[in-house]
Amino acid sequence: MTTSKRFPASAAHHLFTLSASGTALAVALFAASVADAQVATDPAPASADNTVSSAPSTPAPTVATQDATAPSSGPAAESSDDIVVTGFRASLRSSIAVKRNLDVVAEIVSAEDIGRLPDVSIAESLARLPGVTSQRTGGQASAINIRGLSQDLVSATLNGREQVATSGNRVIEFDQYPSELINQAAVYKSPKASQIEGGVAGKVELSTARPLSIPGKTLVSVNVRGVYNDRAGQNPDASEFGYRGSASIQTKLLDDTLGLAVGYARLKQANVATRFVGYDYTATGQNGSPAIRDLDGNGRADAIGYGFEAVQSGGNETRDGVLGSIQYEPTDTFRVLLDGYYSRFKSDVFRRGIRVENLQQTSSNLTDPTVIGNTIVGGNASGIRTRTIQQNENRLDKLYTFGGNVQKDIGQLTLTADGSYSRASSFFNNSGLDDNGNTTATPTTLSYKLDGLNVGSFATNANYTDPAANTFEGFYIVPQKDTDRLYAFAGSALLKIDGPFLKSFEVGGRYGNRKAERTITSFNAFSFAAPVTLTGSNSTTAGFKGKFSSFPDFIVADIGSIFDSQLGPDRVVDQTQAFTQDQSFTIDEKTYAGYGQLNFDTIAGSLPFKGNIGLRVVHTDQSSSSTISDGGTGRYLNTRGRKFTDWLPQANFILGLTENDQARLSLSRQISRPRFFDFRNSISTNLVSIGGTAARLDGSGGNPALQPFRANQFDATYEHYFGNSGSLVLGAFYKDVRSFVIGGVIPNYDFAANGISTPPLAGTGFTSVVTTGNLFAPINGNGGYVYGFEGAITKTFDFLPAPFDGLGAVLNISYNQSDVSITNAISGNTLSLSLPGLSKIVSNPTLFYEKNGFQTRVSMRYRSKFVAPQFGLSEQIVTNAAETVFDAQMSYEFPQGSPLAGMTLLAQANNLTDQPTRSYFGQTAQTGTLQYFGRQFYLGASFRF
Questions:
Q1: What secondary structure letter does DSSP report for 216?
Q2: Which segments of 497-606 are extended strands (E)?
Q3: What average pLDDT is seen over the chain?
Q4: DSSP state of 20
Q5: Least CB-packed of 225, 415, 811, 861 within 10 Å?
Q6: Exposure of 418 in the CB half-sphere (CA atoms within 13 A)
Q7: 869, 579, 792: which is closest to 96 by C-alpha?
Q8: How would you class 568 by CB atoms within 10 Å of its CB: exposed for 0-12, middle for 13-18, buried for 19 or more?
């Protein structure tokens, strides 16, 4: 990893480049809108107490983990002369008003009401915000990247409370949250002391309904949509059709002092992908590869890929989400809020296809090679191993979150107490058959040619549909269960001062107790008593279509039927196999946080000046436990950990320049805790000869002494508001990340002092052991900088003559850069790759038209190339090519007074161009993964009354 601690001299050039190219249209729109901005009605200025305000229908929750001020009803209402707007335009106005009044740098997604966000999950909505992008799972946005930093550095809260994860790590899978149940989402790019620590990249805050904020006594919302995937028909395990539905009700009782809300959302759809995966390259003669081979005769060793596979993945997934909220405010000085959220996500995916292995081996007899950049990307081979792929992946994720908040005003003092419990569980069963395939004993001939970012070709003499040629001698059943549980309690006190400078002073604290556990089990055998030959009753055949249609057809086994006949219906799994205990562990993490924050609002010269200054102090006590092999048949429990304290100063300043312009400056220090897997206490040891009969103890595994990612951060933005019809925002950020978590070596590690026993020496040839050696594990490596620039414009063209006054645009672009690099050799050459998750350019434009109830919208999500893991035989770090995803939506809302008032018809299409995800090793000619998900279409209606 290479680092630098100075801000690059080219930063000003990059800012100019972004401003000139990325915001050229923004400048034109700005000029065209000046007159409009002068006469438009402006939202009221930010409130003096710096509360996080929101849209009138969705006030942001006020809990002890955030600002503990009294709840705000949101931005001041527009004047009675304003035209009432609805739909996407109303959501934009709401989002702009919230952003303008916030005392931190943030991006906002607001819905008119519960059930009005159009996307499948909240991840899709978040991925359209400036500086935000996503990584797709199953063709849909799931993990969120912010400002060029990966999802590992993004934290999330729901109604102000930290969220646990179903991923088995800290990474929040945002597709777990149906957009129908979310009223508002915020991406905080700068922190303040009163917010929960965590999120070097940024923090995502999700907010659900607050029933006392609805305009009438009762509000009912119902959504129903049919779903069609145009690729699912190519897969025998998936259904082309599905559905998406939701229903919610909010009501006010007891003279509007008691509010109740309940909502339910369900999604059932296909999970399909057709993919080609190239395996990693190793230069011949290195890392266990056979002797050096120079196939093209240029005097340099050629890198040869291990092999490749072509796979059809198909199945169906179902997501259920339920929320409930009780809001009680019997007086103006006492408030109680109880809320809960439950999500269940079930996915059954079947992977079928063909795998080619052992191309690197000398026995592959490669001839007529196609060589690009000293790597072999095609040729003829024999004596290789090919097999069919027969794999089932069954996943069941559950998430529970419950919380309660009580707030009391005593004069100028507001006291807040908050408690919450969250639990996530994920059960993943990976099972399949091992095909004895075609080995070097029965040579298979192969001709293949990779085609970079396009689907390549291969032909072979193997018959993948003949049961006699594709018997199965082995199998695997390896379930994995992850749980993540969190108790948290928080309290705060806010004193309003209303002085000429200081408006309030806030102190608070939080205790969090988090426990994560991973348990690996397996069936106690991996081989059948005798090879299994398929029959017509437990198999069928399938083939590839479209871009993959030249690939051979293959046999498809009914894995469940074979398991029943060979192993019986009761397939008990346990931890008899040693690897299951080696890979199982628990994490215990206790955090104690306290903060103080000054909120000020004054006049600097003749300009309004407000903001906050605070300090958050966090003490962490973390440990991990696992059972470790004694080298024989026994195991013993070992626990390791570490304690540390972080001091996190944070300041946010907002200077009003004119009635429509303001500037922000934020200075802060932030942390992100490492993934659970990185600081697991799972260690395997081995003996390394140091001469004669003496040995040294080395090991590999996790590192429970890991400390967080830490970063000093700077943010600056300029904001211009076109009245209530739009905004122009230009921003810059710089993150001095002091420590990254990377794979490394801890030298002179004292295994004995850390409770790691020396394995028995009998039969090893060694008579003595030095227990200080190398531990290969994640470490806190050197840091580096990440910087970038952002430009965004939101504009509704109300000033244009009808019918063009219904036009509008949301345009944004961001540029990200970093000096941090990682070293990677799986392309066959040692290369320096960019920071994982970083795309230099991210842009998310949306054009829309809304008039007389009719609405149409086209959105694009673009990100330039970035580094991320791919999964073939194992996790591999590759470069992902740039991708552009188009979505479109049309709707019509029947007017008030019509017989169908309250009803909206909707049609939606996602991934219009069937944009694949594409990756490569080192150079584009070395194909990594090409994965096509298909287009998704929705047709339905919503009802509100």
A1: S
A2: 502-520, 527-532, 539-542, 554-557, 585-604
A3: 85
A4: I
A5: 415
A6: 29
A7: 792
A8: exposed
Mean pLDDT of 697-710: 91
Q: What is the 3-state secondary structure (H, E, C) of 419-472?
A: EEEEEEEEEEEEEEEEECCECCCCCCCEEEEEECCEEEEEEECCCCCCHHHCCE
Instruction: For residues 231 and 404, give the distance between their C-alpha atoms in angstroms, rounded to a whole number.
Output: 45
Tokens of 790: 């952002």
DSSP class of residue 34 equals: H
Nearest to 652 by CA among 194, 12, 196, 197: 194
Which two tokens mark 195? 């917010």
Cβ-based neighbours of 369, under 8 Å, separated by 6 or more:
295, 296, 302, 376, 378, 379
pLDDT at 865: 93
Per-residue pLDDT at 53 exceeds 50: no
Peptide bond into 778 cis (omega under 30): no
Q: Is 83 exposed, middle or buried (0-12, 13-18, 19+ CB in 10 A)?
A: exposed
Spatial distance between the Cα atoms of 651 and 103, rounded to a whole number of angstroms: 10
Per-residue DSSP letter, 229: E
CB 857 within 8 A of CB 846: yes
The pair of structure tokens assigned to 170 is 């800290």
CB atoms within 10 A of CB 933: 26
Beta strand 385-410 with 454-460 is unpaired
What's the rounded Cα separation, in Å, for the pair 78 and 256? 23
| Tokens 């009719």 -> residue | 854
Q: Which pair of tokens denotes residue 741?
A: 């978590």
Q: Rounded to the nearest 5 degrees, what angle is found at the Cα of 89, between the Cα atoms of 88 and 91?
A: 65
Burial category of 510 from C-beta neighbours within 10 Å (exposed 0-12, middle 13-18, buried 19 and up): buried
Whole-angstrom distance, CA of residue 350 vs CA of residue 339: 37
Would you give the distance in Å from CA 380 to the centre of its chain?
41
* Burial zone of 487 (CB within 10 Å; 0-12 exposed, 13-18 middle, 19+ buried): middle
Burial class (CB in 10 A: 0-12, 13-18, 19+), 81: exposed
* pLDDT tens per residue across span 421-435: 999 999 999 999 987
Highest mean pLDDT among 651-665, 744-758, 922-936: 651-665
The residue type at 898: S
User: How far is residue 137's CA from residue 173's CA, in Å, rounded to a whole number?
Assistant: 10
Beta strands in 574-725 (DSSP E): 585-604, 607-629, 635-656, 661-672, 683-691, 694-701, 709-721
Q: How many CA atoms lie within 13 A of 491 on its CB side?
A: 3
Quote the tokens at residue 480. Answer: 């994995």
Residues 832, 2: contact at Cβ < 8 Å?
yes
Q: CB-based contacts of 486: which residues, under 8 Å, 6+ apart?
A: 162, 164, 420, 421, 422, 423, 512, 513, 514, 515
Question: Model confidence over 636-686: pLDDT tens digits?
Answer: 898 999 999 999 999 999 999 999 999 999 999 999 999 999 989 988 888
Q: Which residues contact 389 (CB under 8 A, 6 or more apart)?
A: 309, 311, 351, 352, 353, 354, 355, 432
Residue with more model confidence, 636 or 509: 509
Closest to 417 (Cα-Cα) out of 425, 406, 408 = 406
pLDDT tens for each residue of 109-163: 887 544 556 566 788 888 888 999 887 776 677 778 899 888 889 999 999 999 9
Confidence category of residue 297, pLDDT binned at 50, 70, 90: confident
CB 267 within 8 A of CB 229: no
The amino acid sitting at 759 is P
pTM score of the predicted model: 0.86
Bridge-partner residues for 313, per DSSP?
273, 351
**What is the rounded CA–CA span in Å between residue 945 and residue 940?**
17
| Amino acid identity for residue 222 in this structure | V
> First vs last Cα of the chain: how many Å apart?
58
Question: 């970038």: which residue's tokens?
Answer: 788
